[in-house]
TrEMBL record:
Residues that hold S-adenosyl-L-methionine according to the record: 62, 67, 113-114, 130
UniProt lineage: Bacteria, Bacillati, Actinomycetota, Coriobacteriia, Eggerthellales
Major localisation: cytoplasm
E.C. no: 2.1.1.-
Tree of life domain: Bacteria
The protein, known as: Ribosomal RNA small subunit methyltransferase G
Keywords, alphabetical: Cytoplasm, Methyltransferase, rRNA processing, S-adenosyl-L-methionine, Transferase
Pfam families: GidB
One of the record's GO molecular function terms: rRNA (guanine-N7-)-methyltransferase activity
Subcellular localization, as worded in the UniProt entry: Cytoplasm
Root EC class: transferase
GO cellular component: cytosol
Amino acid sequence: MTSSECRDLTHQYLDAILEVNKTTNLTRIASQTEAEILHIEDSLAGLPEIEAAPEGLYGDLGSGGGFPGVPLALATGRMTVLIDSVKKKMALVSGVLDELGLSDQISTYDGRIEELALDRPGSFSVLTARALSRLVSLLELASPLLSKGGQLICYKAHVDDEELEEARAVENLVGMRLVSRRELVLSDGETERSILVFEKVGCGKVKLPRRVGMAQKNPLKPRS
Ligand SMILES: C[S@@+](CC[C@H](N)C(=O)[O-])C[C@H]1O[C@@H](n2cnc3c(N)ncnc32)[C@H](O)[C@@H]1O
């Protein structure tokens, strides 16, 4: 696909999602201008990181209306799975992907991330997560899905020292390690973004996934 075909398809996808959003709440961002920045430009902010990740299957955790998953899938050509536990959202997204002829490359999984980790452990080379959970929970959710050397790319609005320390303190438990961090501001001049990349370095010391909900409700703590 040429870069202009890719841009056109990404915009067609966004337009279709905004249309569906008029009747069903897929995303709180409803205006076209805001969506162009927060859904397309922001989704593509992690493109250098996903391009640098090992080749193979890509998954977008807590994908909602398909962001950043769909723009990144189109830009990289990777086989992609969008993962969200809300069945209705995934059904609508899947309908839009069908309409645009994208379902061979981009599929949906309508269940919990923890359930997918039991079905398909170690099968992803790269994962993204935007607006999903604190870093400590993201590391735990991603680890069992990633193959060794696979990467988790986290899109965060703001990472304070406490959130980062909390995550780094469990790196050994979950077999993940921070490899890069980049800060940027979107073209609206005000939306700040941190892109953090963690790599799967080993199997860790805790059996994962834990019971559904635990990673987010009761995050791991370092053993004293
Ligand atoms: C705030 S939305 C973010 C959607 C999208 N990533 C974005 O940035 O526009 C978070 C999504 O994560 C999903 N989610 C939260 N925890 C999940 C889990 N454990 N497994 C699967 N989906 C989950 C929710 O259903 C929700 O659609």
